[in-house]
Amino acid sequence: MNSPAPRSLKDVVARGLKRRYRNEQTFRLLGMSALAAGLAFLAFFFYTLIGNGYTAFQQTRFLLDVELDEDTIDPEETRAGEVLARANYLGLVREALGGLFPDVTARGDLRALYALLSPGAALELRERVLADPALIGTTQRIWVLADDDIDMVVKGHIERDLEESDRRITDRQLQWLDSLEAEHRVELRFNRYFFTAGASSDPELAGIWSATVGSFFMLLVTLALSFPLGVATAIYLEEFAPRNRWTDLIEVNINNLAAVPSIVFGLLGLALFINVFGLPRSAPLVGGLVLSLMTLPVIIIASRAALTAVPPSIREAALGVGASKMQMVLHHVLPLAMPGMLTGTIIGMARALGESAPLLMIGMVAFIVDVPSSPLDPASALPVQVFLWADSPERAFVERTSAAIIVLLVFLLLMNATAILLRKRFERRF
Questions:
Q1: Distance, CA of 382 to CA of 257 (rounded, Å)
Q2: Please, what are the domains in the chain?
């Protein structure tokens, strides 16, 4: 029996190279497939989010000729602001709408006709009269808010072809809407209430301004507490603390705290700040304290990494020319590490901005209409507002939920972009 011919070293190397190239090509294809899948999911997410949310930036309005009857607005002709503010402007708007349909006289039909209007349809008319009382006695053409169900029909979110029992508006109301559209009295206009109003049970009047101010106050408290404490802790641990088991234990706990679920910090804030210290519920101050506890480990870790990145030669040169250790840290090491510290701080703040679980635990899920004027006033936050709207049954709140998420993502992208710009602007290469 003949033995197989021995393979040359060249053949062995060639087979090994082919296998290596094949494995490398397979790994590259797998990596490109994973990247493509991730981009596809991201594109689907943004497509769904923007598709559902962009319509919230517009709101359906009716063009009406409203007669500002003096007997209704100011029967005693005092022109006093409190009298003008209490006038029945909604009744005037309803009379203007009823004047376009004189054949509608039955009480039930009138109620259905007036349901085309939002409960806040007269807000802008009231503001206009308060700003210029000379308008009383005249007839004003004004765009007034439509009801949220009408708005959904105009935007195409509710199909007209459905059975009447499957819609929240009747066939008669659709006929009135078609008549108004034929007279060019229906139009989609910029929804300023979404950016200037607070929470409301009426979707067409609901806005994010109150939640935005609450988030601002919380981030202000978080930044004021977590940044100086985090930087000071990082400087001590990295530059002054002795290397022993106690500092090792502190470092391990800081790293563990950075991975603790955020709802645990909410439970801690509920037990400590509210139950022990008696701070008010739903206040941005308490929310800021809770978010500070959550953000502090992230800032400490990022600040220590920035300090470690400073070359030892900087420290040695400063000490060599007679600087004290404190002068070396404050005048030489800290300025070089500050860009990295700021980057870590902004990323930590961006994470805090998107948190809702710890805020739910401290009562910031309350229905807040008024805009907070200080960190001690009751307030909501953007993530919590998204949570509340997502739980509402009205179809109009679906688009407002998506629109609020878009606004929140814009804030997060701006904060992360700011962190990148700061790093690029102030970063020094050694």
A1: 25
A2: 63-190 (no CATH), 209-426 (1.10.3720.10)
